[in-house]
Structure formats: structure tokens, C-alpha cells
Amino acid sequence: MNSLGLSLILKMGCICAKETFTVNGRKYTVREHLGEGGFSTVSLVEDSLTHKKYAVKKIVCHGPEDQRLALKEIEYHTIIKHPNVIECIDSTHKGTADPVVNATSEVLLILPYYHKGTLANELERRGKSSDYMNPNEILEIFLQICDGVKAFHEAKPEPLAHRDLKTANIVLGEGLTPVIMDLGSVAQARIKVCGAHTAQTLQDVAAERCSMPYRAPELFNVDSYCMIDERTDIWSLGCILYALCYFKSPFDTVYERGDSVALAVMSANISFPESAPYNEDIQQLILSMLKANPMERPYIYSVIEHAHDVLAKLEGRV
């Protein structure tokens, strides 16, 4: 057999051979690569016994801090139990990360598989044909997202913030039920920043883990002496509601052009497309969350109350 024929067979063998792995006695077969972020990859897998499909998130840790954060993500899944926050079905970790000997470890999370994809996918599809959702539907989806966020903000023993809320981190269940995913950026919500070192560390973490078009202004340029709280998520919610209405975050276009998102965000200059069928009430709800000064932003309870008021008005109940 010539070398070309042999190489083709070898290549076909690689394609046909499915990767398998075991988590706590259950065997899974990898079916498809779904995506990757800065710290992890997500694959579609099948339980070898039941043939049920799941998503597996694999985090490769290069050092003790990576490993600590990955295990913390599993812990946050045990703290946050809510129908609008993704469930972690099972998890495991293998090895010990040690940069001295170039050793890595792996943390695996078995998650439900949502075949409808993300809210970002849905909005991109709708955006191509200017297929606007009706305002009632938008507010119903938004209120469910808010309920999920409230679970983080009410966490015990201390409030948590998601810190990377965006349409790409919301998967869609049946009937467009939104489910918040990716708890890799979750952190203690309330941080008292005392000094330039703490400020720079927080700013660096935000730059790594919080997507620019949805990142709150106080995380772009962290003051040396300030208080950061859960209202970083409220800014992101404002961007998500804007995207539900107009298909993209108000800062996506700036990002795509390569202009300074930080400047655009810190100026908080929001404009609304005139062609979309949304009234001033929804726009005011968006603007109430997109306040450059976090102290002027509402907490999640006020956002939910305001959204319910706008919805009631739309339905003619007030």
C-alpha cells in the first residue's frame, strides 16, 4: 500500500475513533465539539449506557490558582440551585496542576445539553431578517433571567455576582426559557477596594473574565478606593435587555469596529434604533440599568419590580 493510502486510512481512523471518558463510574462518548472560551472547552457527549446527551465542560488548569478557581466553579453550582441557572449534573477533577514540572490538571463538569443553543444564536438569527420579538415576550424572558440573577445576589453566606452575564452565556430551554450558564466568572459580589494593588488585580481579572460589550464601567477602570458590588450584573442586564430588543449589546458595534469599548461604556451614551417597535417604557427600563455610576443603578429587586410594571402596562392591567 502506498504511503498516501496509509495516511488516508490513519486519518479516517482518527475521525472514526470516538473519545471516551469516565466521570464517577459513568462512561461518556464525545460526539461533537461545541465551543471554547479562554479557559475551557465544551463538547457534546453521550452517556454510553442511557444514550442521553449532555454537554461537558473541560477546564485545563496550569497552576494551583487555576485549579482553585475551577473547583470553586463546582462549589458555586452547589450553592446556586434555580430553574434559570444551569445545573451541574456531575463533576470530577484529575491530576494536580504544578507549573514547576509543567503538570496540568483537568476539571470536568457534566451539564445539561440545550439543543436550541444560546440567546446570542437566537438573536443573531432574528437580526438577519429584523425579526423583532414582541415586547411582552421580551419582558417575560428578561424577568426569568432576572430571577436567575437574583439567586446569585441572594446567595448565602454572602451575595455572589455572575460578572459575565451576556446573551452568549444564556442557553434556551423549551419555550425559549432562558438558563444562565458559565459560572467560571462568579465571584464574591461585594469587594471593598483599598489600594492600587487590589484595584489592579480586580481590573486584570475583569479583563480576563468579563466580556467587554457587557462589562460594567467600574470594572474597566477600578478606582484605588471604592466599593464594587452586585450592581456590576445590573449593568450587564441592561445590555442584555437592549440586545433582546435590538439583537446586540449597545456596545457590540463599537467592539466590532475596533473602537474603544471602555470609553463608550464609561460615557454611557446609549442610542436606540428608531425602526424597532418598542416604546419609551422599555427604553427607560434599559436606561435605569445603564448608569455609569454604579451607586445610581438599582438592585435586582427594583429591576424586577420595574419590569413587572412595564409588562402590566403593556398588557393593559394598569
UniProtKB/TrEMBL annotation:
GO molecular function annotations of the record: ATP binding; protein serine/threonine kinase activity
Alphabetical UniProt keywords: ATP-binding, Kinase, Nucleotide-binding, Serine/threonine-protein kinase, Signal, Transferase
Signal peptide residues on this chain, from the entry's feature table: 1-17
UniProt catalytic activity: L-threonyl-[protein] + ATP = O-phospho-L-threonyl-[protein] + ADP + H(+); L-seryl-[protein] + ATP = O-phospho-L-seryl-[protein] + ADP + H(+)
Top-level taxon in the UniProt lineage: Eukaryota
A Pfam family the protein falls into: Pkinase
InterPro entries documented for this protein: Kinase-like_dom_sf (IPR011009), Prot_kinase_dom (IPR000719), Protein_kinase_ATP_BS (IPR017441), Ser/Thr-specific_kinases (IPR052239), Ser/Thr_kinase_AS (IPR008271)
Keyword Disulfide bond: no
Enzymatic class: transferase
Assigned EC number: 2.7.11.1
GO CC, alphabetical: Golgi apparatus
Binding site for ATP: 58
Protein kinase domain ranges (all copies): 28-311
Family membership noted in the UniProt record: Belongs to the protein kinase superfamily.
Protein name: non-specific serine/threonine protein kinase
Organism: Neodiprion lecontei (Redheaded pine sawfly)
Encoding gene, per UniProt annotation: LOC107220988
